[in-house]
Design brief:
By secondary structure, this protein is α+β, with helices and mostly antiparallel strands. The protein contains four helices and 13 strands. It has two domains: 88 residues, Ribosomal Protein L25, Chain P (Beta Barrel); 81 residues, RNA Polymerase Alpha Subunit, Chain A, domain 2, CATH 2.170.120.20.
């Protein structure tokens, strides 16, 4: 959890979105099971800094009009061209109730198949959907890929070790990571030079007769 982070926010009325952006703000919304949905705005620079540190799996405070509220970032919308944050959804956390989050997977170790055999690491899942109490929330979950010693080996959701209180919402049979065998290079067809073509029957006879003279 990242409790020490605080993001300042201001209530937002029907302000022009383009004007907000020019002033350095990002529009957003705050909602939760025990709170009424509220429109707000936050400074882009501060939001980007906190998003880099907290991501979508850490709790932090927003200071909305002087009132501190514990939240997680529920959704981020980015512009396709500049990749800038255009809108943000904050979810107010009830510390006594489980929340659903996408837990980032952090791949550690090294598979010998990749290191020495030319295999290619194939990552199918980068996050795991879980439900847990806010106080138990993890920044990430380590996945050790050094156990992948054969091409038939793989790591599925069911192989992960999580705290007993965590509820896994992803499909337990989903493949997380495995190693693909290197592709075998096909032998190139032999190219026969024109000069090496066998002589035709008629030409061979002419050569033989010339040698007898």
């Amino acid at each position: 959890m990242t409790n020490e982070l605080t993001l300042d926010a201001l209530s937002r009325t029907k302000e022009n979105i383009n004007k907000l952006k020019k002033e350095g703000y990002v529009p957003g919304v705050l909602y939760g099971s025990k709170t009424k949905s509220a429109s707000l705005k936050v400074k882009r620079i501060q939001l980007e800094k906190i998003y880099l540190e907290a991501g979508e799996s850490s709790i932090f405070d927003i200071n909305l009009d002087g009132k501190k509220i514990k939240v997680i970032i529920k959704d981020i919308q980015k512009s396709p061209l500049k990749n800038e944050i255009e809108h943000v959804d904050f979810y107010q956390v009830d510390m006594a109730k489980k929340i659903e989050v996408e837990l980032p997977l952090n791949f550690i170790g090294e598979s010998k198949l990749v290191k020495t055999s030319g295999g290619t690491l194939s990552i199918n899942l980068n996050t795991l959907k879980v439900a847990c109490l806010p106080s138990e929330l993890l920044d990430h979950l380590d996945v050790d890929i050094s156990v992948l010693e054969n091409y038939s080996d793989h790591i599925r959701v069911s192989d992960l070790k999580l705290p007993a209180s965590f509820e896994v919402l992803s499909e337990v049979g989903d493949l997380i990571v495995n190693v693909l065998e290197p592709k075998k290079q096909e032998a190139e067809p032999a190219i026969i030079a024109k000069d090496a073509e066998p002589a035709k029957a008629g030409e061979a006879k002419k050569d033989d007769s010339a040698g007898k003279k």
